[in-house]
């Protein structure tokens, strides 16, 4: 007797069609599941967008590590905001042209109202292009960059970066400056890094770059390798210097770069004497006379 064989399953034509359709559907479902697993959250969000106040272009990022040195503290709160009233000469020659008025405010050499200086920019720092040669004298070469925050405005207009950089260079290389005293030569550069950065930024960005030092939207500081200058002070000045914005800017650059060179805060040496540049002159002169230079005699 032959062994019994398993019955053969035969599908009808209709059954074969149903099975084929089911297999196609399963393949589509599995393929979609695999494709979805390769990008579970969609495309990565853009990094460092213009609206992010913490975004700094990596090619111009100042090296600002957290520091704890007590003497690198920011300038104390100003005794009073010079320029609390609009300066009549700030828009001289601007006429009724709003763009010309904004440009004149940016280039002014007299204090403007603090309210004219933008509280925030984009948070990105951009190096002012161009190099500025060192003076022909002996000394250690120190490279510096001038970085300006994108979106920083004065009276609604942009800041003149070229003019600002020339102002900083003139201060750093003047005979009354640090060069003769400390045996250094300053060269302006615009590359990816420098020995020291001179940053001009809106109050909000200054607060971030100076942290953990407290600047409160009003002050400037030296932090890490950056002299971080508050645009509010740069354009509105301080009461201790009155309407002399040129002298106050000289003091501001000289004081903060002085920290880079290793100089510490000083006290007023006596009533009626010129204040050493490392006195915190934004807050008070303490009986001294305002003096913006490290080496006034030149």
Task: Please tell me about this protein's structure.
The protein has helices spanning 13-37, 98-106, 161-173, 178-182, 203-210, 231-236, 245-260; strands at residues 125-127, 140-149, 153-154, 157-158, 184-188, 196-201, 221-223, 226-230. With 298 residues, the protein is α/β, with parallel strands linked by helices. The protein has a domain at 83-260.
Q: What is the element string, with H for helices and E for strands?
A: HHEEEEHHEEHEEHH
Strand content: 5-15%
Summing up helix and strand content along with how strands pair, one would put the structural category as alpha/beta
Contiguous uncertain segments of 5+ residues: 1-9, 23-61, 65-73, 76-103
Shape: globular
Q: What kind of oligomer do you see?
A: single chain
Total count of helical runs of at least 4 residues: 7
- From the alpha-carbon coordinates, what is the Rg to the nearest angstrom? 31 Å
Would you tell me the overall average pLDDT?
Answer: 76
Q: Report the end-to-end length measured between terminal Cα atoms.
A: 126 Å
Largest sheet report: 6 strands, mixed
* Counted beta strands: 8
* Percentage of residues assigned to helices: 25-40%
């Amino acid at each position: 007797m032959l062994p019994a064989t398993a019955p053969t399953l035969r599908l009808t034509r209709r059954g074969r069609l149903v099975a084929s359709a089911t297999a196609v559907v399963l393949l589509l479902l599995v393929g979609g599941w695999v494709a979805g697993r390769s990008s579970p959250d969609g495309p990565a969000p853009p990094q460092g967008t213009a609206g992010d106040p913490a975004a700094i272009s990596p090619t111009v990022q100042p090296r600002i590590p957290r520091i704890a040195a007590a003497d690198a503290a920011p300038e104390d709160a100003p005794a009073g905001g010079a320029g609390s009233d609009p300066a009549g000469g700030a828009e001289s020659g601007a006429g009724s042209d709003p763009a010309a008025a904004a440009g004149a405010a940016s280039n002014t050499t007299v204090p403007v109202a603090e309210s004219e200086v933008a509280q925030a920019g984009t948070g990105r720092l951009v190096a002012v292009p161009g190099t500025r040669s060192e003076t022909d004298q002996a000394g250690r070469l120190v490279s510096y960059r001038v970085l300006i925050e994108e979106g920083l405005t004065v009276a609604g207009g942009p800041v003149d970066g070229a003019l600002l950089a020339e102002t900083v260079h003139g201060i750093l290389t003047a005979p009354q400056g640090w060069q003769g005293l400390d045996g250094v030569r300053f060269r302006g550069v615009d590359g990816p890094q420098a020995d020291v950065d001179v940053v001009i930024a809106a109050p909000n960005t200054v607060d971030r770059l100076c942290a953990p030092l407290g600047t409160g939207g009003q002050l400037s500081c030296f932090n890490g390798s950056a002299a971080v200058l508050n645009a509010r002070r740069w354009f509105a000045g301080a009461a201790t210097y009155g309407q002399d914005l040129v002298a106050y800017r000289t003091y501001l650059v000289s004081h903060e770069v002085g920290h880079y060179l290793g100089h510490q805060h000083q006290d007023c040496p006596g009533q009626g004497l010129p204040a050493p540049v490392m006195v915190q002159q934004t807050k008070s002169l303490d009986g001294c006379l305002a003096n913006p230079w490290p080496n006034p005699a030149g």
